[in-house]
Amino acid sequence: MPYQSIVISKFRNLADQRLELSPLINIVDGKNGSGKSSLIESLYYLSVGKSFRSSKLDSIIEHNSSGFTLFSVTGDDNSHQHRVGISREKNKPALIKIDGEFIRSAIQLATITPTLVIEPETFDLLDGGPNNRRRYMDWGVFHVEHRFSEVWRRYTKSLKQRNTLLRRGRIDRSLLAPWDGQMATTAAMIDQYRNDYIMSLVPVINDILKSLNQTIDIDISYYRGWDKKTDYKTILEDSIERDIRSGFTHQGPHRADIRIKVNGRFADEVLSRGQKKILIFAMILAQGAFLSKLLGRKSVYLIDDISAELDIEHRKNVCSYLEKLESQVVLTVVDIDSVLPLFRKDTELRMFHVEHGKVSQVN
Ligand SMILES: Nc1ncnc2c1ncn2[C@@H]1O[C@H](COP(=O)(O)OP(=O)(O)OP(=O)(O)O)[C@@H](O)[C@H]1O
């Protein structure tokens, strides 16, 4: 569901303001340090109740203020509207309302507006640690498999309990049994959801690579976090001595990873920097395409500083792809001329200019 309007107050350097967005393409330009990434971050915050830039609340709240608030109206002509409000005050719990009702978990936010973000750190997906890749995989699993968040919650709760017991050192092993049982059941489900998602996603990524005029064909090998031939309960039993020595559980879905291969070789080892970036664009765009194909749900795409990431040819391919999606896109650029000529004249496009945190619509 696209954002129709947002109201921002005391978020980073952004002035207190209300913005009306296009349901399709929105281009935001402004000098370095004007507030473009902060605007992308505020939209992302509204979609999941957290930032992609910082986990420290203090750095997000406007420096001279004690808290920020964000408010959005989402929906399109054919669908029901939703109103989301988030208020964060220093040293206080988050207050989140959907349609006037307080909610306890920010997870509910993510179901309203599936939001994909491409910002400088997204490009760590291939070369960075497995956390990024698990987050990538689980964004999709969360949206296509409604049981995932509950199963994941049960798994992590049992993992935490097991690790607490392991840290006690000399333990009565019978105390571990219920947690091991719970972990084995939930791990098998998580493994199945992730494996199914990745297998379905690979052809979509390859189709998108083709539509971005790329000749590479990729494959993804999924590692579930423990040996593929052994059931998880046996793994937990066999690794108990090592787990006790270290005080934590070495193997399991919390250690899952994906490795991306191009012509049988690992992408992070053979692709150029530019090729990696376009591959990462394709991987993110594929998540939205797959969700739309499977469940008819459209995602919102937030893309920060596209011109810094892609050369003109790749930018043109990505912009043409985005234009055909008929989804909401918010793109930021330093120089509007680096993207504006790449869109068709008849595209429903809205332009904004940011200066010292004030975002103004440009005619
Ligand atoms: N909590 C905060 N309160 C006030 N100002 C902040 C806060 N956090 C960051 N800033 C400032 O907000 C400004 C805008 O930052 P932002 O990253 O949004 O800029 P940008 O337009 O994306 O810049 P660039 O093009 O360089 O990426 C910066 O000058 C930054 O120092």
TrEMBL record:
<keyword id="KW-0742">SOS response</keyword>
<keyword id="KW-0238">DNA-binding</keyword>
<keyword id="KW-0235">DNA replication</keyword>
<dbReference type="InterPro" id="IPR018078">
    <property type="entry name" value="DNA-binding_RecF_CS"/>
</dbReference>
<feature type="domain" description="RecF/RecN/SMC N-terminal">
    <location>
        <begin position="5"/>
        <end position="335"/>
    </location>
</feature>
<keyword id="KW-0067">ATP-binding</keyword>
<dbReference type="GO" id="GO:0009432">
    <property type="term" value="P:SOS response"/>
</dbReference>
<dbReference type="GO" id="GO:0006302">
    <property type="term" value="P:double-strand break repair"/>
</dbReference>
<keyword id="KW-0547">Nucleotide-binding</keyword>
<comment type="function">
    <text>The RecF protein is involved in DNA metabolism; it is required for DNA replication and normal SOS inducibility. RecF binds preferentially to single-stranded, linear DNA. It also seems to bind ATP.</text>
</comment>
<keyword id="KW-0227">DNA damage</keyword>
<keyword id="KW-0963">Cytoplasm</keyword>
<keyword id="KW-0234">DNA repair</keyword>
<dbReference type="GO" id="GO:0005524">
    <property type="term" value="F:ATP binding"/>
</dbReference>
<feature type="binding site">
    <location>
        <begin position="30"/>
        <end position="37"/>
    </location>
    <ligand>
        <name>ATP</name>
    </ligand>
</feature>
<dbReference type="GO" id="GO:0000731">
    <property type="term" value="P:DNA synthesis involved in DNA repair"/>
</dbReference>
<dbReference type="GO" id="GO:0005737">
    <property type="term" value="C:cytoplasm"/>
</dbReference>
<protein>
    <recommendedName>
        <fullName>DNA replication and repair protein RecF</fullName>
    </recommendedName>
</protein>
<dbReference type="InterPro" id="IPR001238">
    <property type="entry name" value="DNA-binding_RecF"/>
</dbReference>
<dbReference type="GO" id="GO:0003697">
    <property type="term" value="F:single-stranded DNA binding"/>
</dbReference>
<dbReference type="InterPro" id="IPR042174">
    <property type="entry name" value="RecF_2"/>
</dbReference>
<dbReference type="InterPro" id="IPR027417">
    <property type="entry name" value="P-loop_NTPase"/>
</dbReference>
<dbReference type="GO" id="GO:0006260">
    <property type="term" value="P:DNA replication"/>
</dbReference>
<dbReference type="InterPro" id="IPR003395">
    <property type="entry name" value="RecF/RecN/SMC_N"/>
</dbReference>
<dbReference type="Pfam" id="PF02463">
    <property type="entry name" value="SMC_N"/>
</dbReference>
<comment type="similarity">
    <text>Belongs to the RecF family.</text>
</comment>
